[in-house]
Amino acid sequence: MTSTASPSTLLEGDTRRRRGRGAERGFSRGFRWISTGSGITLLIVLAAVAIFLVQQAMPALTASSEDLVAQNVLPQGMTSLWQLILPLVFGTLLAALLALALATPVAVGIALFISHYAPRRVSAAVGYVVDLLAAIPSVVYGLWGGAVLAPFIRTFWTWIAETLSLLPGVEVRATATGRSVATAAVVLAVMILPIITAVSREVFKQTPRLHEEAALALGATEWEVIRTAVLPFGRSGVISAAMLGLGRALGETMAVLMILSPGILVSFQIFDAGQQQTIAAFIASQFPEAAGLRVNVLIATGLALFVITMLVNMAARWIVSRRKDFSGAN
């Protein structure tokens, strides 16, 4: 015996469905407006930061050399703002690039080990330990680098300097304290290692299984599968991860301030003390006692760091966009 729904029941069900669709459309519009508002807010905040930096740095950028010298806002012996900014930019880039060169190969190796080589339990444990490194405060890294790493690694830096100095026309110096930009770069490399590892690991895990099985079916070894299928697929992701790590290294303050014995020089003596200084560490060390035009000078150096960070991100976007047709970015 078949029961037939009454017209009132059908009408009630249709009304309920229309209300449900209306509510879904309302939620969709609300989510769209929230997303749009979030994006606009981000652009407004970025523009506000840029305007603040330019506005506050303008007195220092437009001040004459006589005013800068008369108000004693520059380090001794300097008569121009660019004599301060250029060595700081050099030291910042040098420390960050050294850290990136040290961290990226290790991070990619750890990511491959976790995603393709290690058993499930081992990969979970290693991944947890690597992620835990990101939770350690930078001041703890600074204490470790200054109190433990610098005295330990100074002998190794001295040996490298003496070995390189045997080459004709090469003079490499090493400090006896170990507080050099090379030591700071090692600490920065440890700090950015979790970022690069985490992003690279997730990218490698997204490699299509069919690509790996096809390589194995053609007789490829496990390393050849990694080289021909996994690494090409994840190339753009690794580049993005490296740029994220570079951004962290460029802006790191406390660890560098606590380790590096600073100097404001354009020098490639990475094992010697009193040679380089980074922008962030310089601002942190000088800002508490700054006043007047000196504050504008420090903000001008901060503007330089802001521009460097923007250029790094733009370069990363350009590299990824060029590589995405040949990798897993699609």
Automatic annotation (TrEMBL):
This protein's GO CC annotations: plasma membrane
Keywords for the protein's UniProt record, in alphabetical order: Cell membrane, Membrane, Phosphate transport, Transmembrane, Transmembrane helix, Transport
Q: Which domain of life is it from?
A: Bacteria
Q: Where is this region: Disordered?
A: 1-23
**Topology of the protein relative to the lipid bilayer:** Multi-pass membrane protein
* One Gene Ontology term of the molecular function aspect: phosphate transmembrane transporter activity
Name it.
Phosphate transport system permease protein
- The species is Xylanimonas protaetiae
User: Which gene name belongs to this protein?
Assistant: pstC
